Amino acid sequence: MSTTATYTHTKLFKLENGKKLRKLEIAYQTYGKLNAKKDNVIWVCHALTANADVLDWWKGLFGNNDLFNPDEHFIICANVLGSNYGTTNPLSTNPVTGQPYYLAFPEFTIRDLVAAHHLLALHLGIQSIKVLIGGSLGGQQALEWAVTDNKRIENLILVATNAVHSPWGIAFNESQRLAISTDRTFYAQQPDGGLKGLKAARSIALLSYRTYEAYSATQLESVNDKTDSFRAASYQNYQGEKLCKRFNAYSYWYLSKAMDSHNVGRSRTSIVDALALVKANTLVIGIENDVLFPICEQEFLANHIPGAALQKISSAYGHDGFLIETDILTNIIGTFLKESANKKIIKLHKTA
């Protein structure tokens, strides 16, 4: 059983910067049923340009015959604030003006994404989360949630993510925003504004998502006499055009800024002290050749989240491996959850 729905928050939604949104809408999907004990919730936080249909974009890990399946679990994935897949975003109508926000949309942070999903959890009556999982920007959300709401989450799975977005990651995002801003249509107040810039931004992003090895394996020329029209060049164009057909430059702009804002130490005593607040059984998974979120960032998480386990994988796809290496993830996560369940049983016996 699956449900696609939208939750509308009737009160003002206050952002971290103090600005407010009226009539916040959050698009979400659920799969399966909440059991009698209400202890089978799997909450998925999605990455930058994904949507609420986790069975589509994380196939192999989520699906009818996969580790996280609707027969056993109640799976929830909500579209993040600012994204154009049904949740309030820069192309939404501003209730005050009656026109789309565009660049008048207020900036928001990872904490705002989490605060919005707190509201959805309250609306759905979710008191406890069996597994909270996310990769990349989704992992940033999951971590922030585990810091701010550390009694609700039993198991936390962080994949290819970090405690604070790095200067390196911010530089990649700023380069993409520079590409978008060179497209004059970005300032033209129209839904398809900035698409040429978005295409270039996506091309830049791919260089941080993949690796030298991945391009050598998939885009290598089969002949030696070419001087133009290379496969790698065609691939960059194709991927840029593909994103432009399903996303918009404004959402991309704002979400990249939200990623830059990620820092669990902000307004807290320190990053290390914030990580110490996590109470969930935590598994951190890092990709050894991830250019965008280097393995040292996952090692830092594992070293400072109490009792956290660390697993490292290698993928020719680099950062994108968290979406592709689902067989490996299934084995690692499945083992972790079995061990977590066994520890819970032992603890219950000791306290009985």
**CATH class label of the largest domain:** Alpha Beta
Strand content: 15-25%
SSE ordering: EEEEEHEHEHEHHHHHHEHEHH
Content-based structural category: alpha/beta
- What number of structural domains do the residues give? 2
Give the overall average pLDDT: 96
Instruction: Indicate the overall shape.
Output: globular
Q: What is the terminal separation in angstroms?
A: 37 Å
CATH architecture title of the largest domain: 3-Layer(aba) Sandwich
Q: Could you tell me the number of beta strands?
A: 10
Radius of gyration: 20 Å
CATH-assigned homologous superfamily of the largest domain: Alpha/Beta hydrolase fold, catalytic domain
How would you write the strand order of the largest sheet? 1-4-6-5-7-8-9-10
Task: Give the biggest sheet.
Answer: 8 strands, mixed
Q: Which percent range fits the helix content?
A: 25-40%
Q: Any low-confidence stretches, pLDDT <50, length ≥5?
A: none
| CATH fold assignment of the largest domain | Rossmann fold
Please give the count of helices: 12
Family: Belongs to the AB hydrolase superfamily. MetX family.
GO biological process, one term: homoserine metabolic process
EC number: 2.3.1.31
Protein name: Homoserine O-acetyltransferase
Provide a quick synopsis of the model.
One of its GO terms (biological process) is methionine biosynthetic process. This protein has 352 residues and is of the alpha/beta class.
Structure description:
With 352 residues, the protein is α/β, with parallel strands linked by helices. The chain has 2 domains: 254 residues, 3-Layer(aba) Sandwich (Rossmann fold), CATH 3.40.50; 89 residues, Rna Polymerase Sigma Factor, Chain: A. Helix content is 40%, strand content 16%. Strands 1-4-6-5-7-8-9-10 form an 8-stranded mixed sheet, with helices on both faces. The chain has a two-stranded antiparallel ribbon with strand order 2-3. Helix 4 packs antiparallel against helix 5 and helix 5 crosses helix 7. The chain is globular, with a radius of gyration of 20 Å. The chain starts with a strand and ends with a helix. The relative contact order is 0.13. The mean pLDDT is 96.
